[in-house]
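Quick log. Single chain, no ligands specified.
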Amino acid sequence: MSAGGSRPGTAARVATKVKVLAGARIARPYRPSTLVRLVRTVSEWGTGPAGGFASLAVRDPDTIGIVDELGELTWRELHRRSNALARGLAERGVGEGDSVAVMCRNHRGFVEATIAIAKLGAHIVYLNTSFAGPQLVDVLEREQPSLIVLDQEFSALLAGAPEVPRVLGWTDGAPDGDTIEQLATSYDEADLHPPTRHSRIVILTSGTTGTPKGAPRKEAGIDAAVSLLSRMPIRARERTHIAAPLFHTWGYAHLALSMLLGSTMVLRRTFDPAEALRVVEEERCESLVVIPVMLQRILALDEASLGAADLSRLRVVASSGSALPATLATAWMDRFGDNLYNIYGSTEVAYASVATPEDLRADPTSAGRPPYGTVVRILDAEGNAVPDGETGRIFVGNQLLFEGYTGGGSKEVVEGLMSSGDLGRFDQDGRLHVEGRDDDMIVSGGENVFPQEVENCLVHHPAVQDVAAVGVHDEAFGTRLRAFVVPCAEVTEDELKEHVRTHLARYKVPREILFLDALPRNATGKILRRDLARWDA
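-> predicted structure:
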């Protein structure tokens, strides 16, 4: 087997699934009548949000499924409320094959809308809560939803958007239209008839380099869960605080995982580092789902806040969505123990590799190894495999590849493997290293420079808290490297340049380093490099 993994035979796949699912404590005895209802539910409704959450109402009806600012909901209550909501949405024109846009923060309304839309056989388009008005209008014009579910705070952004029915997911004051709460408590909550087609989920790309694209997926099935669980020890019927945005691939992955595991989802609409620690402790969470910048903000709390936090129950901190700085990984584990798991992937290929605490201790710059059912290859410009240790384009094969963008086009595919859009290499121990976007590499004075390599160097300076490097136009060199640094102590531009010069080749030293109070990021923590590239120095 190469460093990138290979697809095992049928017997080996079955054995691995059984072992992983047993380790996650999913299997348990049920009454024959319950088993019959479970089989019927999944066969009629599928393994997506409609069938997954309906099966929980059969398996564990009285178990708490959601905890948010409004209180608790059991799986039975969630099932019945989503039935009623589905009827309310149907009365407002939503039918099979339609698209419904959802622009909600992390709360019960997001989950209820997802389930209700899926029960109607409609497609779900998740909108980024950090979209600006023009971005939002562009996406809505392309996706053509028949209805929009949104939190009241985003209503003003719809000026200029197509006129379609709207339902409020969360209200901050007097509602100015229909609300999820109103519909979920006003319509018949009896079971619905299954649609003739299953819904699909459309997750948008981050839009950091252009207009966000829609990346649709069909129901993932059990293999998706087994893939993550093969490298990350989350167990059934535990409590998880999903702090990462639910509208993004990583947050949604754990919403979907809860359908199989029956995990209680602890949600808060917005992220606050001190509140996150309190929630994990008071809600007795065994796992925490984050994006890297959230870890950074937690560790930036004062010593009294960090020292008072009791995270002894927390076994898994699952981080993904953007690059995890090596210094951040080490700092987190030194403070809270070896519970950090870093997942590398993209909206298009889902997850490609998982770095366990053991991987991060051995090499905190690595993205770990491919999980079950995933093949990763490093290819050159002609599509040929490169030797381990050499940099090339990352290609991924699994059961979670997206179907092509809703506006047309797709990622490059070579022999069934899809490009992640990144460059990387495998080291001698079989760990993947991601070196940046394949379109981020710049040629300065005839030399190839990977900005992420320079970022990794700068972030190791004790006076640097955060950093980003981008290529900008240069009359003499064609392109030059400019670095943006968020300092945490007194430091000069010359000192940082000398630090890079000491550790990397001279041509990789940034031509200029600008100091900022914070880097521009979107709601999923990705750095807005497009904004930095046109920064007026």
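Residues 40 and 403 are 28 Å apart (CA to CA).
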